[in-house]
Specification:
10 helices; single chain; 2-enoyl-CoA Hydratase, Chain A, domain 1; 6-stranded mixed beta sheet; globular; 4-stranded mixed beta sheet; 261 residues; alpha/beta
């Protein structure tokens, strides 16, 4: 169930601040929260007073810990799985194509859908506690969409993507800085919000068309895939017995027993 304040959005001096506001759930996303991210990006496209968007998580434990696992209980059909990944692809596409620069200000866990959102942002600043990852190989046994795999491969390279997903490890702040996942590391949440605000103020003072053209040029350099590309992989994972096992194990706090079927 999404509450009206699950995402907070305010604009001051041309800078929009978007706060994922479910700290009690490590800022895990409901389906409607993804939609709200897309709505905010569209608002920024239409409102020329908005120069920059900052995305951050409430509290110091998580930027966003991915999709709220409870929502997967309702998955019964192939259409459910395809629709879920299609929704995320659409939302992330809107974020990537947003007219204004986007900054992810990251403290704590940045995993799954949260890491996908951060990867779509133009700049990422984190605290020393920031941790990135897609631990799906030890949690749910699902997969990413081809668009997400492609985005990560462009950012990190295929070998590093396989390393992170195969091992299901979380990349800590200093390694993330070395890999280019973060552009800066700061001490704590207070310093994070200050630095993100200062960076946004700087970007807001620069030529908006230059920034937009550069964003769009970088986006166009990425490979383009058809909407159906990878549907077989999504169905293989989401419709498997392993996915149901991973979901049940996660919700009952036990280790999953994978069978590869």
């Amino acid at each position: 169930m999404t509450e009206p304040n699950d995402i907070l959005f305010d604009v001051r001096d041309g800078i929009g601040r978007v706060t994922f506001n479910r700290p009690q759930a490590r800022n895990a996303f409901t389906f409607q929260m993804y939609e709200r991210v897309a709505e905010i990006c569209k608002e920024a496209n239409e409102d020329r007073a908005i120069k920059v968007l900052i995305f951050t998580g409430a509290g110091d434990k998580a930027f966003a810990s991915g999709t709220d696992i409870n929502q997967f209980r309702a998955f019964k059909t192939p259409e459910d799985a395809i629709a879920y990944e299609a929704r995320n692809d659409r939302v992330l596409g809107v974020l990537e194509e947003c007219r204004v620069p986007t900054i992810a200000a990251i403290a704590g866990a940045c995993t799954g859908g949260g890491a996908a959102i951060a990867a779509c942002c133009d700049l990422r600043v984190g605290t020393k506690t920031a941790k990135f990852g897609f631990p799906i190989a030890r949690t749910l046994g699902n997969c990413l969409s081809m668009a997400n795999y492609g985005r990560l491969a462009a950012l990190l390279g295929p070998a590093r993507v396989k390393d992170i997903i195969f091992t299901a490890r979380l990349v800590e702040a200093q390694e993330a800085l070395a890999l280019g996942l973060l552009s800066e590391v700061v001490e704590d949440v207070e310093a994070l919000q200050q630095r993100a605000g200062d960076l946004a103020t700087l970007l807001a003072s620069h030529a908006p068309l230059t920034l937009h053209a550069t964003k769009e040029a970088m986006r166009r350099l990425q490979p383009r895939l058809s909407a159906e590309e990878g549907h077989d992989l999504i169905l293989m994972c989401y419709m498997s017995k392993d996915f149901r096992e991973g979901l049940d194990a996660f919700l009952t706090k036990r280790a999953p027993q994978w069978r590869g079927e």
